[in-house]
Amino acid sequence: MRRSRLISGTPGAPGIAVGPAWHYRAAVPAAPAAGAGRGDGKSAKKPGTKEAVAAIETAVAGAVAQLESLAGSLSAAGRADEAGIFEAQALMASDPALLDAALARARGGETAELAVRAATETAASTIAALPDELLASRAADVRDVGARIVRILAGEDVAPPERPSIAVADDLPPSVAAAIPPGLLLGIAQESGSTTSHTVILARALGIPAVVGATGLVEASTDAITLAIDGEAGTVAVDPDLPQLAYLAERAKHLDSRRQAAAALRVRPAATSDGHRIVLLANIGGPDEASRALQAGAEGIGLFRTEFLYMKRQTAPSEDDQVEPYRRVFATFGPDRPVVIRLADIGGDKALPYLDLPAEANPAMGVRAIRLGATHSDLLAAQLRAIWRAAGLAGVIPRVMAPMVATLADVELLRELRDEARAAVAESGHPLPERMITGVMIEIPSAAILAAEIARRVDFFSIGTNDLTQYTLAADRSNPALAHLQDALHPAVLRLVAGVIEGAAGAGIPTAVCGELAGDPAGALVLAGLGITELSADAGSLDDVRAALAGVTKGQLDELGRRSLAAAGATAVRAMAGELLRPRAGTGRA
Amino acid sequence: MLTARVKVGNPSGLHARPAATFVKAAAAFRSQITIENLTSGSAPANAKSLLAVLGCGISRGHRIRIVVDGEDEAAALESLESLARGGFGELADR
Question: Mean pLDDT over all residues of chain A?
Answer without folding.
Answer: 87
